[in-house]
Design a protein that fits this description.
43% of the residues lie in helices and 12% in strands. The protein contains 28 helices and 21 strands. The strands form six sheets. Strands 1-12-11-10-9-8-6-2 form an eight-stranded parallel beta sheet. A five-stranded parallel beta sheet has the order 17-18-19-20-21. Strand 11, helix 12 and strand 12 form a beta-alpha-beta unit. Helix 12 crosses helix 14 and helix 27 packs across helix 28. The longest helix is centred in the middle third of the chain and has 22 residues. The radius of gyration is 27 Å and the shape is globular. It binds zinc ion (ZN). Zinc ion binds next to loops. Catalyzes the transfer of a methyl group from 5-methyltetrahydrofolate to homocysteine resulting in methionine formation. Belongs to the vitamin-B12 independent methionine synthase family. Keywords: Amino-acid biosynthesis, Metal-binding, Methionine biosynthesis, Methyltransferase, Repeat, Transferase, Zinc. Pathway: Amino-acid biosynthesis; L-methionine biosynthesis via de novo pathway; L-methionine from L-homocysteine (MetE route): step 1/1.
Length: 763
């Protein structure tokens, strides 16, 4: 019999119950008991949802984040919250949310820069964890009550529970040494606590423990490799069987290390590392469990069950009941239930599987292996029919788009002249002062805007009234910008719900779910659009809004677009073609929009690539291949314009050192970046590289309600001018202003414009 099991279940709830319960508790509108009860209820429901699996995860539920849970489990709390006398859950939330500013909570569209330095992306997912903090003298002590309680709850429910914990090496690797000490030196102190934990779980009746070590799919130097061996050697005597779980990537050079760990089983991501499984079949001792992650836990497509069986059956014959089946990773990264979707296009819906449907697929595979394919003949036939329909659907395949992408040449990604020549023409045309001022695109999304949009969506507001309301907002932001004296204006993005969704909704090949929420961090969720087919642009998407805005002013109006790489990286993408191919299709669509804007007289066009860095592969050795196609896609989107048209791009993160040559190769005339919190130090990368084009280093931290003073901005810009020639500097905020209030934005921008004037006077 093949064991089927799950690595983790989405905790937020099919209707985002956990989100609403958390937010109500934080506002003081409900009690701690209410929240605890809701947690217990969700766990119970989710275990019921996983009925029929042989092993069900416990400990995957969290009130905020599983990494933060691990820090509490190991007694590793930052000093600033130690000694807190109140309730443990409240202390937990203090660590989770303590330092994040009000506005930061709102800014989920922005690549994880949400709570400065404390939260970061979980591997290459869009889930953000709270970074563990270490110091040379960090001590660990076991606090297992939360996990043991959940285990008891599961056992009471009659569930065959498999506690899930983060392994010691991954825990250390994900944390940050606050005093620059060597994190690995803490291992000796950490391991005894893990041993205690494993013993406690054994005593509580667990037979298997899943111990997640996804850093095994990243590059590990010798010191870390040795640490792995040492750690797992110490776990040998514990009274539970350990399943070391890896996911999200390929084991490659770590294959022998993973296979050689003295544990009872190894889980691998057979979606991302199918080839690696071959190597494991010879390397992994025959008495060890090999758990194959055959259902994609990162995507929303139906699994090809027949093809999976074709692949798995011979392995199962060879290794017998030592082969287990599971999703590739925790289902945390997919929405809960496809059945809730009422408005999804029927074709598209028939091709999809969310968490519950993925578990159904797992059960079907388990049945087929246990009793033969005959036992699930109808299910397999249904699955095959859906997959065949998808493969052949004209909704998915558009020969004209495929031909256009095939016909792309590198020429199309090249501007007509070099930057220096373009800059002269643009300067003549735009006639801007030194230190020109601009903003990144959005102005406050007021309650009025949100209300109008939701009334429009529900049909209470007709199209004309909605358009009129948005035009009024655009006019308001243009007037404010003129009053402020900004040099290059924006229309303010009032009409956009989200910088990706807005474009996805207008492109062919995209679908939108109603309830397809995925946890991003804490109570925050995102609903990634579903890119299902060849991408085309049936009509212009932004031209009317931008030309309307331009008609209101003599100042240059900056057209505002989201770039192809960002649209791709914030979507659920196709699994039937490479990401690069989908990205090229998006690039062509955005290119058409850019050219239409130019034709309509828009001479400054910004193409945001906020998520370009997010797409970097987990292994550095694979970065360049990604950067090559990603940058090529940006170039295709942007560089069809004439010399006099100025292309801007914007990126809201603060690490450029390792990707600066690719950033330069994008060849945008102007790049605006997030810098205010780094005190301009991140411009070092641009200075060392001798970045040739113009730069707008952010001088206003839009995550915070604080209003930067004129002097503060002048000082920052002076630091910038030490690194980049002053005649190539712009003055602008870090990012868009949609999460701020007008009452904050006006004084802040007013100080920014005053600072630019002071700077002009000083050169
Ligand atoms: Zn940004």
């Amino acid at each position: 019999m093949t064991t089927i099991h799950n690595l983790g279940f989405p905790r937020i709830g099919a209707k985002r119950e956990l989100k609403f319960a958390l937010e109500s508790y934080w506002k003081g509108e409900s009690s701690r008991e209410d929240l605890q009860a809701l947690g217990a209820q969700l766990r119970q429901r989710h275990w019921e949802n996983q009925a029929g699996l042989d092993l069900v995860p416990v400990g995957d539920f969290s009130f905020y984040d599983q990494v933060l849970d691990t820090s509490f489990l190991l007694g590793n709390l930052p000093e600033r919250v130690q000694g807190f006398q109140g309730d443990e859950l409240d202390n937990y939330f203090r660590v989770a949310r303590g330092r994040s500013a009000q506005g930061a909570e709102e800014h989920s569209a922005c690549c994880g820069g949400v709570a400065a330095g404390e939260m970061t992306k979980w591997f290459d997912t869009n889930y953000h964890y709270i970074v563990p903090e270490f110091k040379a003298d960090t001590q660990f002590t076991l606090h297992a009550s939360r996990l043991l309680e959940q285990l008891a709850q599961a056992q009471e429910q009659g569930v065959h529970a498999k506690p899930v914990i983060i392994g010691p090496l991954t825990y250390l690797a994900l944390g940050k040494a606050k005093d620059e000490s060597n994190k690995l030196a803490l291992l000796d102190r950490l391991l005894p606590v893990y041993v205690q934990l494993l013993e406690a779980l054994a005593e509580a009746g667990a037979d298997w423990v899943q111990i997640d070590e996804p850093i095994l799919v990243t590059e590990l130097d010798d010191e870390w490799q040795q640490a792995f061996k040492k750690a797992y050697e110490q776990f040998k005597p514990v009274g539970v069987k350990l399943l070391v779980a890896t996911y999200f990537g390929q084991l490659l050079e770590n294959t022998a290390l993973a296979a050689g760990l003295p544990v009872a089983g190894l889980h691998v991501d057979a979606i991302n590392d199918r080839d690696g499984v071959d190597a494991l079949l010879t390397l992994l001792a025959k008495d060890k469990v090999l758990s194959l992650g055959v259902i994609n836990g990162r995507n929303i497509w139906k699994t090809d069950l027949t093809a999976t069986l074709d692949w798995v059956e011979p392995i199962a014959r060879q290794r017998g009941d030592r082969v287990w089946l599971a999703p590739s990773c925790s289902l945390l990264h997919v929405p809960v239930d496809l059945e809730s979707e009422q408005n999804l296009d029927a074709d598209v819906k028939s091709w999809l599987a969310f968490a519950l449907q993925k578990l159904d697929e797992l059960r079907i595979l388990g049945q087929a292996l246990a009793h033969g394919r005959e036992a699930v003949k109808a299910e397999l036939a249904e699955n095959l029919a859906a997959l065949t329909a998808r493969r052949q659907s004209p909704r998915v395949h558009n020969p004209a788009v495929k031909a256009a992408v095939a016909g792309l040449s590198a020429e199309q990604g090249k501007r007509k002249s070099e930057y220096a020549q373009r800059a002269v023409k643009q300067a003549q045309f735009l006639n801007l002062p030194a230190f020109p001022t601009t903003t990144i695109g959005s102005f406050p999304q007021t309650t009025d805007i949100r209300r109008a949009r939701s009334e429009f969506k529900t049909g209470r507001l007709d199209e004309n009234s909605y358009q009129a309301a948005m035009r009024a907002e655009i006019e308001r932001s243009v007037r404010e910008q003129e009053k402020l004296g900004l040099d290059v204006l924006v229309h303010g993005e009032a009409e956009r719900n989200d910088m990706v969704e807005y474009f996805g909704e207008q492109l062919e090949g995209y679908a939108f779910s109603q309830f397809g929420w995925v946890q991003s961090y804490g109570s925050r969720c995102v609903k990634p659009p579903i890119l299902f087919g060849d991408i085309s642009r049936p009509h212009a998407m932004t031209v009317e809004w931008i030309t309307y805005a331009q008609s209101l002013t003599q100042k240059p109006m900056k057209g505002m677009l989201t770039g192809p790489v960002t649209i791709l990286n914030w979507s659920f993408v196709r699994d039937d073609q490479p990401r690069a191919e989908s990205c090229r299709q998006l690039a062509l669509a955005i290119r058409e929009e850019v050219l239409d804007l130019e034709k309509a007289g828009v001479r400054v066009i910004q193409i945001d690539e906020a998520a370009l860095r997010e797409g970097l592969p987990l292994r550095q050795s694979q970065w360049q291949r990604y950067l090559d196609w990603a940058v090529e896609c940006f170039r295709i989107a942007a560089n069809g314009v004439s010399d006099a048209t100025q292309i801007h791009t914007h990126m809201c993160y603060s690490e450029f050192n390792d990707i600066i040559s690719s950033i330069a190769h994008m060849d945008a005339d102007v790049i605006t970046i997030e810098t205010s919190r780094s005190d301009m130090e991140l411009l070092d990368a641009f200075e060392h590289f001798q970045y040739p084009n113009q730069i707008g280093p952010g001088v206003y931290d839009i995550h915070s309600p604080n209003i930067p003073s004129e002097q503060h901005i002048v000082n920052l810009m002076k630091k910038a001018a030490e690194r980049v020639p002053a005649d190539r500097l712009w003055v602008n905020p870090d990012c868009g202003l949609k999460t701020r209030q007008w009452a904050e934005v006006i004084p802040a921008l007013s100080n920014m414009v005053a600072a630019a004037k002071t700077l002009r006077a000083s050169v």
